[in-house]
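Supplementary Note 2. Why include the ligand at all?

Several targets in our set were suspected to adopt different conformations when bound, so apo predictions alone were not considered sufficient. For every target with a known small-molecule partner we therefore ran a joint prediction. The input for magnesium ion is given below.
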Amino acid sequence: MRDRANLEEHLEAALRPGAVRARDSRGRKVPEDEPPYRGRYQRDRDRIIHSAPFRRLEYKTQVFVSVMEGDHYRNRLTHTLEVTQIARTAARALALNEDLVEALALAHDLGHGPFGHSGENALDEVMADYGGFNHNIQGLRIVDELEIRYPDFPGLNLSYETREGFSKNLDGAQRARHGFAAGESPPLEVQLVDHADSIAYDTHDIEDALVSGVMDEATARSMALWKETEDEVRAEHAVFATDHRLRWRATVRRMIRRLVSDLIAETERRLKAQGIDSLAKVRASDAELVGFSPELGKKKAAFEDFLEQNFYYNMKVRQHTALWQERLRELFAAYRADPSRLPENHHARIKAGVPLERAICDYVAGMTDRFAERQWNDFCGK
Ligand code: MG
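The joint prediction is reproduced in token form.
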């Protein structure tokens, strides 16, 4: 049997010089003995999967509000699983730390509230005078403080490098507050998961947009990235001319392959060009080391702008999101007017000095769509 040290050494011997290795980890906030047969990042992954916020991802909106639109579309959990498989594939091809990438990808959306981006907007609005709401910082709060499962520390006590997944877009003061070294770039694994996230949502959102009928195919074909890929697919099999479902699915698959292949090749090229041969060089580099080629990157950015205008802001999607944005504001106000409606553990937090608004925000942000709906019906429904 391989013990942990042996296992990590075996797995990590094959990694590229700029990858993260468990032996170089900056460790956990509260030091712990590591288990005998699981690597450090495997353990982080397991802690994430066994957490309640991870399970609740199943009932949180990605784009479509499932309680109103049906069960065929992506939710945060299925999105998370798609991100994870894309990220692991690319990590293995690039000889990056696949265990770390898996943990990062599984955790990347833990901080999202109910009802997708409208939920985030609503919470940010009501928290404007109390520090605001941001899903990355909320993710950190969950894994560092809110999830209570262990007697010796709050949160999941994840490794520094796994926590770094939430460090994107934090300014210097925020980095310092959350225990991250100032002026450093995150490891390649963190950068990779970010791109895997965008590959997953670009491709699954266009599929959901088409299948739901929110967007028609002619509109999708006005985007170069979709049109080129679809034309390629049509040329390959006669059935794609007549069966639009098969055609869309094949096009989505092809788009993922195209984006992932390009990401791997371009990242490999950049790492060579920049002479990245250690994790220290990754952390010291200001350059975007993981990314798409200029040509495909441009098409992908145009595709995202287009989705923004024609899908996320589409009336049918917006009607529901605007409704829930308003209802979450009402729900927040209902708890504020009568804090006894909060569950017991939040009373204890408030007594311990957590401001009322932050406690309400943490509670509401943790809700699934359907639980928030029930609470709204109980407290605000007419
Ligand atoms: Mg995501």
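The pocket of magnesium ion is lined by residues 79, 83, 108-109, 197 (CB under 6 Å). Residues 169 and 309 are 24 Å apart (CA to CA). Comparable summaries for the other entries are listed in the accompanying table.
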